[in-house]
Amino acid sequence: MIVVMQPNATPEQIDHVVERVREIGLKDQVIKGTELSVVAVIGDDRKKDREVFETLPGVQKVVNILAPYKLSSNEVKTERTEVAIGQACVIGGTAVPVIAGPCSVENEQQILETARAVRDAGATALRGGAFKPRTTPYSFQGLGEEGLKLLSAARDETGLAIVTEVVTPSDVELVAEYADCLQIGTRNAQNYELLKAVGQQPRPVLYKRGMAMTLDEYLLAAEYILEAGNPNVILCERGIRTFENHVRNTLSLAAIPEVHKRSHLPIAADPSHGTGHAHLVPTLTYASIAAGADAILLEVHPDPQHAYTDGAQSLTPATFTEIMPTMQRVAESIGRTLSGMPVGV
Ligand code: PEP
Ligand code: MN
Questions:
Q1: CA of 104 to the centre of ligand 2 (A)
Q2: Phi, psi of 315 (to 5 degrees)
Q3: Whose CA is nearest to atom 4 of ligand 1?
Q4: pTM
Q5: Tens digit of pLDDT at every position of the chain (345 positions)
Q6: Which domains are delineated in the chain?
Q7: Ligand nearest to the CA of 210
Q8: CA of 302: how far to CAs of 109, 119, 193, 316, in Å?
Q9: Which residue CA neighbors atom 3 of ligand 1 most closely?
Q10: 188 CB under 6 A from ligand 1?
Q11: Are 125 and 181 in contact (CB under 8 A)?
């Protein structure tokens, strides 16, 4: 249920609604829009009595949210949410940022070389895993804190915002110390304790879709982050498991406009994990932009053949640099631009 305030409602009137919500034993979340604010009333449906709120001063109306997901639904908030990662990377507006970098941080030279190359090509954020959730315990697990320090050095040199994965609630504080944005990977997409933990800290969260999650399940799980108090969630379509095996995952392009129809949250696309093969990545990147992706996540490695992880799907810096102007043209063709790229290339 949401309590929609009148456009001229005062902060005191909003506080009063919040007080009443708490008195009843429910949770509140105030969502401030440019036109008006709403108070989302969260918790046991049996305790929700719209009449309690309808007559309070400053209240315009009380609306039941029909979608099973509440805070992510665009019934709660009609304006699109924009999420800022660092200073220069905003996701959810007209401009589409590109977040690029290796699957894993391997060493200083690798991450710095990649960071410089992707920045020069027009990326606005650097990705790279320091903690890797691997399918087998025998594979490279990431450099841990050392990897975070290298990412931080790359940010200092290039100005790129840092996106990196956190795999366990006990590491959230550590990763948040270094990163501008915390990534939740597909294998942890239903790790609800981790979702709550990233919801309780202030960094934005790039939350990838679980490889076997329906869209409903995905949006419901995103509620854990929002409900815990963090509104800065970027969804990410990274491919799902299907019977098809010519690709590593099936990038569900239709999920992008469908999320836009249902939710105010921005959604990124990850054509690297969404295909698993570097030769498919450029085309699926263009298609993701055309489908309305609010950001693009790409794996780029200076020497893909020798990458510790995900080399087969990693672009070389040269290919990355080559595809950026076409990405820009596709963005322009649907009335958008790539952030950080000159228009009309
Ligand atoms: C990654 O981004 O390198 C990664 C592990 O992604 P996913 O969780 O989508 O597999
Ligand atoms: Mn990867």
A1: 7
A2: -85, 150
A3: 185
A4: 0.94
A5: 999 999 999 999 999 999 999 999 999 999 988 888 999 998 888 888 889 999 999 999 999 988 888 899 998 888 999 999 998 899 999 999 999 999 999 999 999 999 999 999 999 999 999 999 888 999 999 999 999 999 999 999 999 999 999 999 999 999 999 999 999 999 999 999 999 999 999 999 999 999 999 999 999 999 999 999 999 999 999 999 999 999 999 999 999 999 999 999 999 999 999 999 999 999 999 999 999 999 999 999 999 999 999 999 999 999 999 999 999 999 999 999 999 888 877
A6: 2-63 (3.30.70.1140), 83-338 (3.20.20.70)
A7: 1
A8: 10, 14, 35, 6
A9: 103
A10: no
A11: yes
Whether the CB-CB separation of 200 and 166 falls below 8 Å is answered with: no
Question: 213 and 183 in contact (C-beta within 8 Å)?
Answer: no
Q: Identify the DSSP state of 106.
A: -
Residue nearest to atom 8 of ligand 1 (CA): 185
Nearest CA to ligand 1 atom 2: 103
Which of 238, 275, 300, 315 best tests ligand 1's pocket when mutated (most atoms within 8 Å of CB)?
Answer: 238
Type of residue at 336: R
Burial (Cβ within 10 Å: 0-12, 13-18, ≥19) of residue 78:
exposed
